[in-house]
Fold this sequence. Notes:
Elements: E1 7-9, E2 14-19, E3 24-29, E4 33-39, E5 44-50, H1 68-81, E6 90-95, H2 111-126, E7 130-135, E8 141-146, E9 152-155, H3 174-183, H4 189-200, H5 205-214, H6 216-227, H7 238-245, H8 247-260, H9 276-295, H10 300-309, H11 312-321, H12 325-334, H13 339-347, H14 351-361, H15 366-374, H16 385-401, H17 415-421, H18 429-434, E10 439-440, E11 446-447
Parallel strand pairs: 1-3, 6-7
Antiparallel strand pairs: 2-5, 3-8, 4-5, 4-6, 8-9, 10-11
Amino acid sequence: MAYRYPTSSVASGTFAVVPRRKEILEAYLGSCVGVAIYDREAGVGGLAHFLLPEPTGMDCFWQPETYAATGLPLFLDALEVAGASPENMEAVVAGGALVGVLSECDLELDIGGRTADVVEKVLRRKGIPIGTQETGGFFTCRLGLNLYTFQCHIAPFGPDRVDDTPKELFPLSLERLQKALQTVSPIPQIALKIIRMIRRRTYDMEQVAEETRRDQVISAKVIRLCNSARFGIKTDAIDRALIMIGEKRLMQFILTAALEDFFPERDVGYSICKGGLYKHALGTAMTAEGLANFTGLVSPDIAYTAGLLHDIGKVVLDQYISPVTPMFYRQTQMNGVSLVDLEKETFGMSHDEVGGLLAEQWALSESLADAIRHHHQPENSMVNPDLTHHVYLADLLMSRFMVGHELERIGTKSLRPTLERLDIRPEQVPVIVDRMPRQVLFDGSVQGEGNGGRAMEAELPKIDKPQKVVRFKRTA
């Protein structure tokens, strides 16, 4: 299927139904399951993106499109309302990858496999044939539905060419690395000030608000984030925002806005989409904060900050990765090679090690620097292991359930010890996944926080954007 038509992305926990037109619906799938269904005779098709097999509790049932058991029947009803006939419907199913190679006692974590099973049962019960099905495995994919030809496409996502290999590897000398560290944009002083305040748990909001007002760019970004929040109150002033959302949330908004321009906006290198590094960082921050609320073991503010900063080493190495992006993509996404190992082989140093050096250069706290340096191997953390385990788990969940932002797929070697340290039972993992941010949008805001919002933080930014596709309203 040629991608020559405009493309609309279907976020997890939503579905879209559209009449025939020159457009493509897409879903980026890891452990989520995507279902494309079309009726060529009626000229109607759609795509659904399911996060979990079934609701995780009564408090979450208000968003039924999230789950295959409740969302797929709604999706089929919407197709019929749009003119499709069950007798003429055809389905294509993709996704449902495993979270990693797990031992027998960890099979409960095969969320994707169980979601795919529910999809099959519902379609079988409705008598709708599955023309193509590519589910399971350990790798992410892209499911596309051409709304003009009603042809489907399942493929890995990433660079168009994945067979290129660099002519030579180029380990970075210490001198080159130091130069790279020095050329990285300095962290804004307002961000450093907030990070220190969060660490000390002291807030001088009058001073922070005054500095934010003086920086027109950051101030505008903070107002944008405030206006996209779930409270539904519009504001055009920092002082009013402080009254509306409180000190802690405003501090997070200012920190997020101040760091947005630090991450490269390109869609090459580590990023798979434009601004992918920033979107992944923001999603990891919000997930780490939610985990902290769930476990009660670390401060949610500090967990948010550590999640936002965990991949800063990639910002340093991003300028060197373009020539080897196809090789990196093939090795990490198709051959299952660890990104950290690949970076060490190619550059002589991995992004977590470089991130630790950058954290020292910025004089970040030992706790944050430790979490940045060991977020791939939290068992090596010596300063604040609980914080590092929170960041590792948030990073892992983002790499499996919110795919399409960056190259990395986090390894699962540390998953079991992390769950044990954080006192999270395997059966609680779907509840945590259910409360992750649904989609980090291009402007850095988040659309659709986790359902209910009681176990995870309730005050996640939410934004309503006009969509190209026809969406059906959620039903209670």
